[in-house]
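TASK: fixed-backbone design
INPUT:
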């Protein structure tokens, strides 16, 4: 089946999905994006993703490419046209195509909007059973990591370094403290309490993080929002990450050192179960 993608209002076979070489997303990374998971043909945490999209656009003084209703239709159509039962929808908005000047283009420029699906097995991801390995690497990103921009070179380099070292994710480190993963939020567990960095301009406010905070609260699992060091992580009872496509993912090794005996621990297993219960309901 040929994948159907969305480009500026049109549904097209993927080989026909094209944008201008003058697009500011391409030239300046002047664009924002969202990735939403789909389980059983239904979007997960979609309202939170759209809320964050609105915030990212506002922070960059970028126009909405269309109405929220139209975005809802786009997501629903992509699921339908691609018969997507499980996977993700990636969507991106850029400031549009214009002559190359650093300052915003003068006059009316139409934002670019593209979206596509990627079928993937999310619920029965085998990594969730074994747990994954992470490495630590310096956080090379800019100062507004709260905005979900497509400027992903530092995360791409970090993820590549992780893969080359036999790990699946890199935790980025600044002044000795873990900020977050290259595409996920970072957590450790000590004495039954979950510790994760507080929200600020230094990390992305994960939609999965938000859902997890709510579920943990309902379940009586304490989450402390504060910075933690690499040393603390290495001495933790458990570690895990969250993201829209990995949900709640156990970590069993950091920089080659086993965490919690090298097995996913009870707290992360419980939290993943709670998340999946709600997402598949
Ligand atoms: N931090 C970063 C840097 C990310 O790229 C992501 C994935 N978008 C996350 C955290 C997790 O966010 P979410 O749960 O909304 O996918």
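OUTPUT:
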């Amino acid at each position: 089946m040929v994948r159907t993608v969305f480009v500026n209002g049109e549904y097209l076979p993927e080989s026909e999905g094209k944008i201008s070489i003058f697009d500011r997303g391409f030239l300046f990374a002047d664009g924002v994006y969202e990735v939403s998971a789909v389980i059983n043909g239904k979007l997960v945490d979609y309202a939170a993703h759209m809320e964050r999209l609105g915030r990212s656009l506002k922070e960059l003084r970028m126009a909405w490419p269309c109405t929220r209703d139209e975005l809802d239709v786009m997501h629903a159509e992509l699921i339908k046209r691609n018969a997507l039962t499980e996977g993700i929808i990636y969507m991106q908005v850029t400031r549009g195509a214009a002559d190359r000047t650093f300052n915003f283009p003068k006059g009316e420029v139409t934002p670019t909007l593209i979206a596509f699906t990627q079928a993937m097995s999310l619920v029965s991801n085998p990594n969730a059973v074994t747990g994954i390995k992470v490495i630590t690497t310096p956080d090379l990103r800019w100062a507004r990591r709260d905005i979900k921009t497509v400027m992903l070179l530092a995360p791409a380099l970090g993820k590549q370094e992780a893969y080359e070292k036999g790990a699946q994710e890199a935790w980025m480190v600044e002044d000795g403290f873990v900020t977050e993963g290259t595409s996920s939020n970072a957590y450790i567990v000590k004495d039954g309490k979950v510790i994760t960095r507080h929200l600020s301009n230094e990390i992305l406010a994960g939609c999965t993080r938000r859902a997890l905070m709510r579920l943990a609260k309902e379940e009586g699992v304490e989450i402390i929002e504060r910075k933690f060091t690499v040393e603390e992580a290495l001495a933790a009872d458990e570690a895990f990450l969250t993201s829209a496509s990995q949900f709640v993912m156990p970590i069993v090794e950091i920089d080659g050192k086993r965490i919690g005996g090298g097995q996913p621990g009870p707290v992360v297993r419980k939290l993943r179960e709670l998340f999946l219960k709600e997402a598949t309901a």
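COMMENT: The first strand starts at residue 4 and ends at 7.
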